[in-house]
Design a protein that fits this description.
Elements lengths: L7 H6 L7 H9 L4 H4 L15 H17 L22 H4 L9 H13 L1 H15 L8 H21 L3 H35 L16 H30 L4 H27 L12 H15 L4 H9 L1 H4 L1
């Protein structure tokens, strides 16, 4: 602001900026020698290049004149357009789906192991994430990608045993990944997200000035993916290993198949319950255990009715083989 408008530095900085008339008229009255008046004083009285008392007085006078001229120049509110990140049309979570270097695979594998042996510890780390990053959902999509790859791999193994056409193999793999895993998972997460925000949020009159908290949809999807991983291990991988026994007719295969599905679905609902129970602003989260009670009650009925869930599920994809 101390330099006149005719200065090359100021001219380059204000290139393309429209100035008010009063500012332009004032700048034209400022002479060019003002630029040289505010430069560093030359050591003429001290001799050896050191600044002397006379130079200090001259420098002080120049600083005073600079302070007098500064209020005369008005400040301009320059509007700088915000810099946009390339690809900012997609959320960062979606952009990181294809960036393996930004995924913490070691931590994801550790979480996948804990979901099978101690899922409560996983949601304890979710509380730590809320305290450090102020968000419940993961910002790393590595767990979603890892589970999707596991579903794709096990589905290809099923196709290797029960499919003899390449087109059917591609169709079954796409249905398992895009329909069963992504679409159905998004629908289940949306239903649980709506249920938690609409009916389960705690409303206390003693904290009327507290910040209202809601369940993030991405966290609801994280809960589903966390609970789906051990279910994928049992209902995809273990069922494939036991499929020669489970596909046969008889009472023992029905009992084994129903027990496998009952245990897997109950564990899925238990992990879902733990995820929503970790949120301190939700009440009555035991409603997520009701489907587990219903599954346990229907299992003996399915056994005596002659229902084999393994034959039913596999016949959807490989109906030409199993009938």
């Amino acid at each position: 602001a101390a330099f006149p408008l005719r200065s090359p530095r100021v001219g380059r900085a204000l290139r393309g900026v429209t100035l008010p008339r009063c500012f332009v008229a004032h700048a034209r009255r400022v002479p060019n020698p003002v630029v040289s008046d505010f430069t560093e004083p030359r050591a003429t009285t001290s001799g050896g290049g050191d600044r002397g008392p006379a130079d200090e007085i001259t420098y002080t006078r120049q600083t005073d004149s600079l302070a007098k001229l500064q209020p005369m120049v008005p400040t301009l509110p320059l509007k700088v357009p915000p810099q946009r990140y390339r690809g900012s049309g997609f959320p960062p979570y979606v952009r990181r789906l294809l960036k393996w270097r930004q995924m913490d695979l070691e931590y994801t594998a550790w979480q996948a192991w804990l979901m099978c042996v101690n899922p409560r510890l996983v949601y304890r780390h979710t509380t730590y994430r809320k305290q450090t990053k102020n968000r419940w959902a993961r910002d790393d999509p590595a767990f979603v990608v890892l589970t999707g790859l596991l579903v794709c791999f096990v589905t290809l193994l099923y196709c290797a045993f029960y499919s003899h056409a390449l087109a059917q193999t591609g169709y079954v793999t796409l249905c398992a990944v895009l329909v069963d895993y992504v679409t159905l998972g998004a629908l289940v997460a949306t239903a649980n997200w709506f249920l938690a925000n609409r009916f389960l949020r705690a409303r206390s009159a003693n904290h009327s000035h507290a910040v209202e908290q809601r369940v993030e949809w991405l966290f609801a999807f994280d809960i589903h993916v966390n609970a789906f991983f051990p279910t994928c291990i049992t209902l995809y991988l273990v069922q494939l290993v036991l499929s020669p026994l489970l596909l046969t007719t008889g009472l023992l295969p029905r009992i084994a198949s129903c027990a496998l599905y009952c245990g897997s679905l109950c564990y899925y609902h238990y992990c879902t319950f733990l995820g929503y129970a970790a949120l301190p602003f939700l009440d009555r989260t035991t409603v997520f255990l009701y489907p587990a009670y219903l599954t346990t009650a229907l299992t003996p009925i399915a056994i005596f009715a002659g229902f084999n869930p393994t034959r039913f599920v596999l016949s959807i994809y490989f109906h030409d083989i199993l009938g």
